[in-house]
Amino acid sequence: MIRKIKNFFFKAPFFVTILGVMALILVVLNATRFGTALVQWNLILDFMPKPGPAYIAATGLLWASCWLIIYLSIQLAWRRGGVAFLLLSFLYASYYWIDRFFLQPHAERSNALFAFIATLLFLIGSMIILALPESRAYFAGKGEVNESKAEITNPKELLN
Predict the structure, then answer these.
(1) CB distance 143 to 152 below 8 Å
(2) Residue 53: its pLDDT value, please?
(3) Is the CA virtual torsion 62, 88, 122, 110 positive or negative?
(4) Domain boundaries in the chain?
(5) Mean pLDDT by 10 residues, the chain (160 residues)
(6) Which of 43, 47, 114, 159, CA to CA, is 20 to 30 A from 57?
C-alpha cells in the first residue's frame, strides 16, 4: 500500500506537477502570512490598524486552507481538481488586487506593473497547463499518458 501511494505521487504529468508546486507555494505563503500575523500581532496593530492583524490572520488561514485542498485535489487526481484550481486562481487574483487597492491604499505601488504581469502570467500559464491533453486526461480519471510507452495509468486505482 505504501509503495502504491509513493508511486502515485510520481504519476502526474510534468505540467500537472507544476500546478501542484504552484498551489504548494501559495499554501506556504499564506500560512506564513497567518503565522506572522499571530506572532507580530501588536506590531501590526501599531503600524497598520486597518485592516488589522485579525484580517491578515483570517485571510492567511483561509487562503492557505483553500490552496491546501487544491494541492490535494491535484495530487489525488480529483476530477474537478483542474477546474477548482482555475476558479481559485481567479478568486485569489481578484482578492489580491482588491486587497491591494482598497484595503491598503497607503502602500506604495512602485511594483504594480510587475505584480500585474506576474498575475497575468500565473493565470494564463494555469489555463494553458490545464488545456494540455495530458492534464485533461489526468483530471478526467484516465491518469497520466506515459510518454515512453504511450500507456494510460489510472491513479484512482491506487486508492482501492
Answers:
(1) yes
(2) 93
(3) negative
(4) 2-159
(5) 54 92 97 97 88 94 98 93 96 94 76 93 97 93 50 53
(6) 114
Q: What's the pLDDT at 146?
A: 47
DSSP type of residue 159: G
Q: How far apart are CA 138 and CA 104, in angstroms?
A: 40
Cell matching residue 62: 483561509
Q: Write down the residue that cell numbers 483542474 correspond to.
A: 82
**Alpha carbon separation from 79 to 11, 45, 135, 149, 153 (Å, rounded):** 15, 43, 11, 24, 15
pLDDT of residue 151: 46
Give this prediction's pTM: 0.79
Instruction: Mark out the alpha helices in 40-80 (DSSP H runs).
Output: 41-47, 52-75
- Kindly provide the residue ranges of all beta strands, DSSP E only, lying in 10-124, ordered along the sequence: none
User: Nearest-CA neighbor of 30 among 64, 54, 71?
Assistant: 64
pLDDT at res. 59: 97
